[in-house]
Specification:
Two copies of one chain form a homodimer. By secondary structure, chain A is α/β, with parallel strands linked by helices. The first copy, chain A, has three domains: 2-134 and 304-329, Rossmann fold, CATH 3.40.50; 138-299, Dihydrodipicolinate Reductase, domain 2 (2-Layer Sandwich), CATH 3.30.360.10; 342-425, Alpha-Beta Plaits. In chain A, 35% of the residues lie in helices and 28% in strands. The first copy, chain A, has 13 helices and 18 strands. Chain A has helices at residues 13-33, 65-68, 86-95, 105-121, 138-145, 160-171, 176-185, 194-197, 200-214, 233-241, 303-319, 361-371, 401-412, and strands at 2-9, 35-43, 59-61, 75-78, 99-102, 126-127, 150-157, 224-225, 244-255, 258-269, 281-289, 292-299, 338-339, 346-356, 376-381, 389-396, 399-400, 417-426. In chain A, strands 7, 8, 9, 10, 11, 12, 13, 14, 15, 16, 17 and 18 form a twelve-stranded mixed sheet that branches. Chain A is elongated. The relative contact order of chain A is 0.13. At the A-B interface, helix 1, helix 5, strand 12 and helix 11 of A face helix 1, helix 5, strand 12 and helix 11 of B. Strand 12 of chain A pairs antiparallel with strand 12 (292-299) of chain B.
């Protein structure tokens, strides 16, 4: 009988989900995997106030050193999130020869490089399946599922909160604020939803995926990030009438030694499989060579989804206690690969101008776009009877961020242009 | 440096794809995984006639014993398919302490039970990722990706040939024969396509999935199987006008200790994600508790897709040479679980009757259905000016196979009914 003796640090939503799931499946795990999983010690800064009925026999503490210094504990499960003190805990645990399981995307995105090396040097494992896509096994798929291929791209819907909000705006005609409130009511958004809706959560996850797919650690701050707070109901409607839907996508591509990595709202065709991924569902498209596109989708948020990823890690660890090197801990970095700047990346754009309903307006707008070399794919001027401004929707051809910004700056100086112009990228997904 | 020294048996489409892919990625595998992969010996019954330029330094033989008896070879890759002599080869290899990688679905479906035990007893591994879904890592996802969950269902499109044919019938209005010919022309169907189009290929794969998901080996012959040869262009059209599309689905569900396993053409709603899986793409929906539905999709056929699965197995094996037990080789069987007979399973049906265009026909048909307790959800009688028969389309409520067969037998005795009635199941997928 193998023994996995756990020190659990963090007893919030995910931590208590892990305890619930382990408790339910204890006998099954023992029978099938010949493994006894026991949570010996629980550390949480407000452990006194929490319902720990399922951990009646566990030691309770507020000091993580009680776990780090216990030689009987061979696995530390870190579920507190954030950089401090999580980084210190994980480092210390690895140095002390303990395996670590974490769901901490910020930590892996920023410090994966060092931590993987530390795990290797100490001949222990660092598992982090739940850091991206919760229980959807995207880490395992990239590191063990599809091997011998090169990855040319990975993109998808990787934040459940944003996808829920955009889905509600699309299906129920909610405003952004109504949809956000609904997400909070359903437990799909935190009371402070900033990191989700500003795209930073997706950026952290994308940094991890870029490393695994392309063998390149990139700084999260170097990823171009745009959130969804500026998406208006109007844009959702216009996108619909153009046969598109708006999704917050994380996109990474590799061309020879140049990679691009960006997170932004994106108009995609309604016929693309990603268009039907709604609510809290996430979906990852892996563009592998020679395998082609592989899609993996499922619930990417919620207590039991995240708990599933952690429990998968625990069981896999029990099967790999004697393994020398974990595929998701292999540290390779190709120094020749560099990250492209957003200024150099060409995409198509959906533009919504708010213009005075006067003759000559369209020719002024299109004239300036033309001067900056921006081709126009289609133009729609919507009727609007009640006010003196009309929305003008333009879909551009491929253009650089830089040209677009310059053109928009110039167009904004026109006295006929009211309000800020909305620019949302369009992506033709393979 | 780890050494994987391979004896490759079978140099057809998949075998030569594996050699191509390994050759391309040799240095990458060496650098990243610290593994030297070498094909020492190639065995193929017509090895003389094949292009083995990429295997210039390998021993060529027509006798698989040259591989089995070579102590330097630690991995046997079996890619000949079928039961004989594949079964003997795999058994002998395992007994001799060699790891085995196979893409042989027939072998694993029928003899997995014994082979997994044999692998365990000899402390070696048996990998078979390509046996289901080619390079799509469905085996890995079920055995390592989503753990600590119970599986309540697994269903999907698991035969690329049939999906290609049905897609062509739907998109190009091809007849079955035209679509089959096109599939053969594109290399997506064998010159003898019987095992694909009669559903047996899907049944073998489903047997493997049922074992992995539910812990129960079922005999392939006990799976209810219906192929796609009876699907007419008319049915494709009627399904379309009802907001549905026809797919060959493999479906397994578990309710307490009863499982059902069946393969048949199925009308599914156009809005379900599976409806947009077309051509040679496969898709698997795993209904996990508590994780919910996870979808995995990708190219399920073709040389490089299958080769990817085999190469993934080779690399994973190199990382697990010292592991005691492979999750996909864990042999557990729950004796309490039993397989339901198709007679006991309730589904809805799409029925197409060919009836004389006479008064009273509808009441006769619906009357007999009613006598057998079969509720009617909708009824459409299509106009048809040129001949004296009209198609009558009925969508039923849930009914058992048995009641339906009895009702149809009776309806066929009506003199107003011409031709055989078409009955296709409808499934409301979660």
């Amino acid at each position: 009988m193998k023994k996995v003796t756990i020190g659990l640090i963090g007893y919030g939503v995910v931590g208590s989900g892990v305890v619930k799931l382990l408790n339910k499946r204890k006998n099954y795990i023992k029978g099938k995997y010949d493994t006894e999983v026991r949570i010996k010690t629980l550390c949480d800064r407000s452990v006194d106030k929490k319902d720990t009925a399922l951990l009646a026999t566990a030691v309770k503490t507020t000091d993580f050193n009680d776990i780090l210094n216990d030689p009987e504990i061979n696995v530390v499960v870190e579920l507190i999130g954030g950089m401090n003190p999580a980084k210190k805990i994980v480092e210390e645990a690895l140095k002390k020869g303990k395996h670590v399981i974490t769901a901490n995307k910020e930590l892996i995105a920023n410090k994966g490089q060092e931590l993987f090396q530390l795990a290797q040097a100490n001949r222990v494992h660092l598992y982090y399946e739940s850091s991206v896509g919760a229980g959807i096994p995207i880490i395992k798929t990239l590191t063990e599922g599809i091997l011998g291929n090169t990855f040319e791209g990975i993109f998808g819907i990787i934040n459940g909160t944003c996808n829920f909000i955009l889905s509600e705006m699309t299906e129920k005609n909610y405003t952004f604020n109504q949809a956000l409130e609904d997400a909070q009511k359903n437990g799909y958004a935190e009371s402070d939803p900033t990191l989700d809706i500003n795209g930073m959560d997706s950026a952290h996850k994308l940094a991890i995926l870029v490393n695994l797919a392309f063998g390149k650690f990139i700084a999260v701050k170097d990823i171009y990030v745009e959130g969804i707070t500026h998406i208006a109901q109007d844009d959702i409607e216009h996108a619909k009438s153009l046969g598109h839907t708006i999704k917050l996508l994380a996109i990474a591509k590799k061309n020879n030694n140049a990679i691009e990595a960006r997170v932004h709202p994106t108009l995609i065709s309604k016929s693309h499989p990603l268009a039907s991924i709604n609510h809290i569902y996430n979906a990852f498209v892996i563009d592998a060579n020679p395998l082609g596109n592989v899609i993996l989708s499922g619930e990417g948020a919620g207590q039991m989804a995240a708990a599933t990823g952690v429990v998968s890690d625990i069981i896999n660890l029990s099967l790999n206690l004697e393994t020398h090197l974990l595929p998701c801990n292999i540290y390779t970095e190709d120094k020749n690969i560099s990250l492209n700047k957003i200024d150099d990346i060409q995409t198509k754009f959906y533009l919504r101008f708010t213009a005075m309903d006067k003759p000559g307006v369209l020719s002024k707008i299109t004239g300036i776009l033309g001067e900056h070399g921006i081709g126009i794919n289609s133009l729609t001027q919507k009727e609007h009877s009640q006010v003196k401004t009309v929305p003008v929707i333009i879909l551009t051809e491929l253009t650089s961020e830089k040209s677009l910004r310059m053109a928009l700056t110039e167009i904004h100086k026109l006295p006929v242009i009211k309000n800020k112009t909305v620019a949302i990228r369009m992506e033709k997904l393979s």
